[in-house]
Design the sequence.
């Protein structure tokens, strides 16, 4: 059971690092709901609030590995 918990902790930390490096605020959140904090989107991710999809190209596995290995500064 603890292996599963460790895996989920790693996934959560990895997602947090990815958003810090490659994330951008949703432009539609600021227009439709200006008082709300904008959703941070990764490339090709869809905003759950207003349906905007980030048009940037999807991240490569090398970019994922660079963040996982700590080679990209946040």
Sequence:
């Amino acid at each position: 059971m603890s292996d599963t918990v460790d895996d989920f902790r790693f996934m959560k930390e990895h997602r947090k690092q990815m958003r810090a490096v490659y994330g951008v605020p949703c432009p539609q959140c600021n227009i439709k709901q200006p008082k709300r904090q904008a959703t941070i989107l990764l490339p090709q991710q869809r905003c759950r609030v207003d349906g905007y999809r980030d048009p940037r190209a999807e991240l490569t596995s090398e970019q994922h590995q660079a963040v996982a290995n700590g080679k990209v500064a946040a």
Summary: The chain is about 50% helix and 5% strand. Residues 2-69 form one domain.
